[in-house]
Amino acid sequence: MRIKFIGAAREVTGSKHLITTDEGKKILLDCGMFQGKGMETDALNRNLMFDPATIDYVILSHAHIDHSGLIPYLYKLGFRGSVVCTNATRDLCSIMLADSGHIQELDIKWFNKKREKQGLKPVEPIYRQTDCEKCMELFIGVAYNRRFQINDKINVKFTNSGHMLGSAVVNLELLENGEKVHLAFTGDIGRPHNRILHPPTDFPQCDYLITESTYGNRLHPEEKESEEDLLKIVLHTCVDKGGKLIIPSFSIGRTQEIIFVLNDLYNKGLLPKIDVFVDSPLSVNATEVFRMHTECMNDEVKAVMKYDDDPFGFNSLHYIKNVDESKALNEYDRPCIIISSSGMAEAGRIKHHIANNISNWRNTILIVGYCSPTSLGARIQEPGLRHISIFGEIHEINAQIARIEAFSGHGDYNEMKAFLSCQDTKLIKKTFLVHGDYDVQQFYQKELESASFQNIEIPEAGTEFEL
Q: Where are the beta strands (DSSP E) in 32-144?
């Protein structure tokens, strides 16, 4: 059996890891898009390093676009195998991939107008919404903790990783030359306490471990502290300064978590009397999927639902789908909170909100999670930066740029180590670190070695290993 690391290798996005069994079956763990790499992104996403038509199975850890976003491209190029994932992941992908296709169609239309002015031929989007709709026919949803037989020599079981709705550790059991091989792919690892979801659960002992390392050199502040910080920022921005609080947030997971916290503040009478806008059609649809999957909710959310039927809604909260309503927020001249995707501020309506509000000293841009180094979300945080280019126009940075780390859906290095402690390290033949910046991975490698992990590899993109 061989494994080739294609994406999220010494970087954070583009998760793709290709297993080839001794009998020639090809299993792709995740099929994510590269994000936040500027002009390189398109070329990286188009160059898969394999023939999609030869892939037998895609096994998906969760629905975030940097893990699922190229499945329609696979379909477009001839993939007709199965996509196996949890039920909630399937439901989320049905809306997230369609949204991704829509964004690409819009982006390529704008890009081709520029090419036309330069006398260049138009280019095709990586995929279209129709590809997204068709590829959903290949999805198979499987419940947590239920062994699913892919064929007579490959089984998979999903265990909860606690990162987002439906996220899972992929536990593969493969029969190779008469011997069972157990491989575990953690996907993204959540935190031991999530405001909405059940915490990560132990997963079966593996022979080979592929694990993420996004926050491999960071420690999160206490959760209660982050909620107090959020309230302080809301009060300072919207009450003291009379400005707008702009929050770039991923549509799935983090947006619902922020809404849940604001809902709690509203119920306690602590949230000031201001409008809160969720300006993302995807967030609106995703919140409906959250409401469908109460089996994934933790006991605290279920306790809240005993006296609050909807923990994702309150009187001053407004979900926006209409483009005209979104544009109208530019003229909204009262204090408010605007939550919009994407979390790295690389695409979507949030870029327009940042462009329209970053030059006003009354406003605050609040970053609530990881941003890859080249993304707009990361660049606006550079110390001492006074100007930023957005949509090709230079904007003066007068707004306050704030950050709250603890809203991240990724475990820090202590939390990840604690999660992996369910494994007997003496039985793991090799551990692969993926989904992290290289300097962070090197730090995390030492942390894992201090916890008795051995034979740790940090693969480069394109590296192949014989297992």
A: 57-59, 82-86, 139-142
Task: Write the class of the CATH domain 2-218+409-466.
Answer: alpha beta
Q: How far apart are CA 393 and CA 385, in angstroms?
A: 15
As a whole number of angstroms, the distance between CA 355 and CA 308 comes to 36
pLDDT in tens, 290-346: 888 988 889 888 888 778 777 888 889 999 988 899 999 999 999 999 999 888 888
The full DSSP string for 224-275 is HHHHHHHHHHHIIIIIIS--EEEEE--TTTHHHHHHHHHHHHHHTT-S-S-E
Burial 33-42 (b: 16+ CB within 10 A, else e): bbbbbeeebb
* Contact partners, residue 39, CB within 8 Å, separation at least 6: none
* Domain range list for the chain: 2-218+409-466, 223-407
What are 219's two structure tokens? 């420690």
Q: Which fold has domain 223-407?
A: Rossmann fold (3.40.50)
**Are 2-218+409-466 and 223-407 equal in CATH topology?**
no
Q: How many CB atoms lie within 10 A of CB 52?
A: 21
Q: Which two tokens stand for residue 44?
A: 């990286």
Output the pTM of the full model: 0.87
